[in-house]
Amino acid sequence: MIDNSSSKGCPEPGAGARVAVLLPLPLAGPYDYRAPAGERLAPGLVVRVPLGRREVIGVVWEAPANADAPAVGDAALRPVLAVLETPPVPEPLRRLVDWVAAYTVQPPGAVLRLVLSVPDALMPPRSARGWSRAARDGGAPPARLNEGRARVLAALDEAAAHGQPALVTADLAARAGVTAAVITAMGKAGLIAARGMDGDPAPGPGPDPAHPGPVLSPAQAGVAAELRARVGAGFSVCVLHGVTGSGKTEVYFEAVAETLRQGRQAVILLPEIALATQWPERFQARFGARPLTWHSQVPDGQRRRGWRGVAQGRVPVVVGARSALFLPFPALGLIIVDEEHDASYKQDDGVPYHARDMAVVRARLEGVPVILASATPALETLENARRGRYHLLRLPARHGGAVLPAVTLVDLRAHPPQRWQAGGEDAPFQTGWIAPPLVSAIRDTLAAGEQVLLYLNRRGYAPLTLCRHCGHRLACPNCSAWLVEHRASGRLCCHHCGHQRPIPTTCPACGAEDSLVACGPGVERLAEEVAHRFPKARALMATSDTLGGPKEAAEMIRRVGAGEVDVLIGTQIMAKGHHFPGLTLVGVIDGDLGLAGGDPRAAERTHQLLHQVAGRAGRAGRPGRVLIQTADPGHPVMEALASGDDAVFLETEAAEREAHGLPPFGRLVALIVSGEDPGATQATARALARCAPEGAGVRVLGPAPAPLSLLRGRHRVRLLLKAPRAVRVQPLVGSWLDQVPVPRGVKVQVDVDPVSFL
Ligand SMILES: Nc1ncnc2c1ncn2[C@@H]1O[C@H](COP(=O)(O)OP(=O)(O)OP(=O)(O)O)[C@@H](O)[C@H]1O
Ligand SMILES: [Zn+2]
């Protein structure tokens, strides 16, 4: 196959061989090109080729199976324009691209785009102009230098002592605390000299496996030895199931150390929000250096250097969000997926892949071990362990004698939160969200000088605003969702599309004044109540709104660690990874949040999340306790949390999934049909339903409006294919889609193993 729209002419005599090139575009497969005469282009090489009138960068690929009958004759082949100097895309990664494409029913080029995520990194290193000391000054600063100029020379000496012979202007100015003009003037005066320098500075000292780490307990050491033994011994999957605070991180670090000793690379996947915890410091404490971090917010220059460093094998350890799985490691020795149960490992847009599952696939293709760590492994993972495919390792106790916190349910029907007044006797009553038993637990904890975490997974002030006059609810114009009040910023926001507007003073529907009321709690509202009930306590809100970036997160961690905070009020981002020794009470404001809705994993996920939050309490010397407010204390999730016995819950949950043919016992594929035109969207969905695959236990449910039936202005309809485990669903889906023409403006998104049902 080739885009031959503008190819012309015949091949020159002795022209090069036919070569398949995969482009990072949603095309059905690789296109054929002609290699330069006399050159053999090995698969993996990164090349520049013409496409229509453009030039694009692609990767030489293994010839597809139909290579014997090419779609384009030799005469029409267009030439490969250049081979880039970057290291080739390694073979196991190329196979991963094909594998992921086939599994997710997406074009391979769309998956390749995940690999070539930093196009800039494929270009040769930029040479920059840097400054060093002028050769003739002999190293001694001339006597009449002013202070700023002296600092510039000192900064250059300091850099040279650390192996950096030159610094670019901006860097030098920043280090010396002078303006760029000072540096230019010094250059003119011949005090410093300009020189060309490599745009990719050498990385600093790498992680050292011999750096002294903590002494492991006998239980930890036993598990660490098992993990170490697997490094260098081919493909295997270990599930590291350890209770919260058991030291899973310290234990898997030993496998990382072994990988480093063998001179290979390791990648550790973490949910994006867990990257903003103490994790990097702990890595540094164990290895004496930081790993490379990889996530969506890493600045461009760092991404470019990171990608190249990984490809050149110079970066030994990467910690990152799911996209780190597609980095071009030439010598991968170990993959770790921490918090493996986390739903954020599933990408919902673009190529919908599950990074945990694809990590197992990459490990198999690379012939290396993978470790899945969690305090609450996914049912899918436990089922794989039960079948003997994954090897289960347990850490059943907390490190250092700390005990797991006692969990108590607070029945909201028996103990409703009391209303409160902000001002004097005439002030209006405010709805309360903290029930009396939690109020007194907070009081006791504060009196003991310990810290409290109040957990409510809702940003903003209130999830719903309505008019008490006409009942109008303020909704997003682009989505089927309510606008969330953010009182701190004075705005109503849609949490799905980002639409926002100022909070109106009159009802947009009936015009009544001062008639809008906030319904339900968000963290801002909870903070108000905390300030009223515990006026002396120093409270801190920790949400993605208040912790915009890594700096704010680090500052929050520092303040809590230093005991400058008494009550933390947090959303999901506080639920995992954090380790605060002074925190002894966790209060869950709404334990039932997340249990409603048609998501088959709702119960499992709520259990995981609350277990995780509960695990923040009592991690050091002092015992912790957890109070979960619920209106349904008899729910299996609540019972499991209160008893601390997951086994019954997991068994019931598994039995229910099995009875309904749900994962991990059956397969699901969701089709999400979306478009701006509701009629065309509906019609496409109905057409899909009419030719739905049948037989051998395969069923298609729907079309049904998605729970988010309008998102960013697009109408959404869902179909769900259910099949027994043994059925290969991808070919079924492929031929199903082939039968239905999709009109312009309508999109059919295939989601194999869906995690989100919105
Ligand atoms: N052998 C050890 N020596 C000293 N400190 C340890 C040891 N093992 C664990 N710790 C410390 O105990 C705390 C808990 O360990 P860690 O965070 O690894 O547990 P975890 O199982 O990953 O917890 P969670 O699942 O709750 O995040 C950390 O502060 C860690 O540094
Ligand atoms: Zn919206």
Automatic annotation (TrEMBL):
Where does the record place the Helicase ATP-binding domain? 229-395
E.C. code: 5.6.2.4
Extract one GO molecular function annotation from the record: ATP hydrolysis activity
What class does this enzyme belong to in the EC scheme? isomerase
Q: How does it assemble?
A: Component of the replication restart primosome.
Give the matching NCBIfam families.
priA, PRK05580.2-2
Give the protein's recorded name: Replication restart protein PriA
